[in-house]
Amino acid sequence: MDCNPAFLEVHHRAMATEFSLLLYGENKARLHWAVELALEEIDRLEHQMSVFDITSEISGINARAAEEEVIVEPGLFGVLQFSKQIHEETGGAFDITIHPLVRAWQFFRKAGTVPDADTLAEALSRTGMDHVHLNPERRTVRFEKPGIEINLGGVGKGHAVDVITGILRRNGITSAFINAGGSTFYALGAPPERDGWQVGIRDPLNLERHVEVLHLTDRSLSTSGNYERFFTVEGKVYCHILNPRTGYPVCGMLSASVLAPTALETDASSTAFFGMSVEEAGKYCDSHGGISAILCMDEIESVGHFRIEKIGFKNPRVTG
């Protein structure tokens, strides 16, 4: 790359969020061409994975899989396989069948509501990847009972970011930064004359500050936080991230940030870690090379304070 590389910045609305792409290269026409291909693919993936689009492939699976095996497009089938694997490896902390619980808590609406015991129990009975059967040979999915619904909200953006990254690489782009809604990032290469793309992890109690500033190269970062969406009932705050193992919103965790080689991994595992203990997250990182995490946990007895746990780094530390 010469000393005055071409630069392109593009913003695109999709998947209920904004994708931002920053690219450097020797030829601006090549940058535009690669971005055009990437944006077309984002729109295709949105149409494929949206539960709000009755014509999407996911909606078709949800409508038919309790009655028959449904053949799945190869890329989407890979996402389902990965989702089932991480569900098992996190002890159920990550679950793409959480849609009935999300509906019970009415998180599709801005207000949200606390469901009664019967509603919650009924939703829990229809939640769990154990009810989803995948056949790799036929590339099919089948639900073992009616009422199961897949929602890829916890992994869809990560998948899209990885697909975009692949498109950019295949078109000769070696320096790019992909931002999916401010919660999932991928750093391809590094900016000119820099050692990496700078990304900050926000302070969950003061979004104007950062608890950590990282410089990423060929690596992804995702953060799940309770500050994104929540509602309050009788003085109790309920965040929008549900623990599929209990059916209730997670409490005690303020944010979970994960670094890994792919955005698919970081998007899913940041969601999972948000509902896991430090010990559980630590075991997961120990058994999966290349994954590290920064967890911000609420100090219940000290209002306005939290503690930070760093997992999988060379020099882990705990700060107050």
Task: Describe the 3D structure.
The protein has 320 residues and is an alpha+beta fold. The strands form four sheets. A nine-stranded antiparallel sheet has the order 1-2-6-7-10-13-14-15-16. It has a three-stranded antiparallel sheet with strand order 3-5-4, with helices on one face. Strands 8-9 form a two-stranded antiparallel ribbon. Helix content is 31%, strand content 30%. α1 runs antiparallel to α6 (156-170) and α3 (74-89) packs parallel to α7.
Poorly predicted runs of 5 or more residues: 315-320
Along the chain, the helix and strand elements come as EEHHEHHHEEHEEEEEEEEHHEEE
> So how many helices?
8
Looking across the biggest beta sheet, what order are the strands in?
1-2-6-7-10-13-14-15-16
Instruction: Characterize the quaternary organization of these chains.
Output: single chain
Strand element count? 16
Computed CA radius of gyration, to the nearest angstrom: 20 Å
Structural class: alpha+beta
Which band does the percent of strand residues land in? 25-35%
Overall shape: it is globular
Q: If you average the pLDDT, what whole number results? A: 91
Helix fraction, binned, reads 25-40%
How far the N terminus sits from the C terminus, by CA atoms, comes to 43 Å
Q: Quick one: biggest sheet?
A: 9 strands, antiparallel
